Amino acid sequence: MADPALPRRRRRRTAAAGDPARVFAALGEPARLRIVSRLCDAGPLSIARLTEGARVSRQAVTKHLHALEQAGLVQGGRAGREQIWALRPERLGDAQRYLDRISQQWDEALQRLQAFVEDDGPA
Amino acid sequence: MADPALPRRRRRRTAAAGDPARVFAALGEPARLRIVSRLCDAGPLSIARLTEGARVSRQAVTKHLHALEQAGLVQGGRAGREQIWALRPERLGDAQRYLDRISQQWDEALQRLQAFVEDDGPA
DNA sequence: TGGATACGCAACCATATGGTTGCATATTGT
DNA sequence: ACAATATGCAACCATATGGTTGCGTATCCA
């Protein structure tokens, strides 16, 4: 990590890996999804910087950041008088893998259906 | 702006592909995520069948199904006195691709950071 | 036909959620 | 020290959300 603002690993109170709904819920709010997106391609940003691009107040942004933190998607740390928030891509990976898994289940279900049709279907 | 001269696009009640937050919000409710998961590996199910596995009332399940429909994740149809709901995997694919995209942005940001460190960093 | 099954609709309720404003605190820089 | 900046905290508010119950309707089947 190049950013000295990021504190040491603080793994508390964040969503467990086996809680995909929490991550999806966090991403399900347009303002929050935007924050995640911005952190994704701009790197760690302060609350003030994040508020610049948003249409809501600083406090609203702060609340969203806390929600994202609860979901394990972002992590914050202080740098002087600023609080810097950074993306934490692990949970995004979790969400991806979850979608992959149920998509695969869907494909398997389709295959089972095909097998059933071939077996029992119209002669 | 929609030019009135252009052929009108089919207006859908369901979420547009470019509305990932809506899909994530739909998946962000544990009960709904469970419904999606069940439809994924069990195939189309009636409301009664879906209610069997749920801890909430049939009406709650119905509401969730409507929410999922709004997000474009499921589609319902009648079969006699039953209403059958089926998964609609396209939106899941959209969500997957969205996560892929921002994950990739994150990777590119990391690479930019590395390039910056190599260029300007401690000699 | 009549009962059982499957569902839709509407009203209602408690809480969660997203947003705001006001004010206090800490940090920076002159 | 002082003003400006960046943030935290708490109260407050309107609406959305998830859940329930009650009741009416359609369909299946004996």
TrEMBL record, chains A, B:
An example Gene Ontology molecular-function term: DNA-binding transcription factor activity
A Pfam entry, by short name: HTH_20
Highest taxon of the lineage: Bacteria
Domain spans labelled HTH arsR-type: 12-107
Record NCBIfam families: HTH_metalloreg (NF033788)
Name of the molecule in the record: ArsR family transcriptional regulator
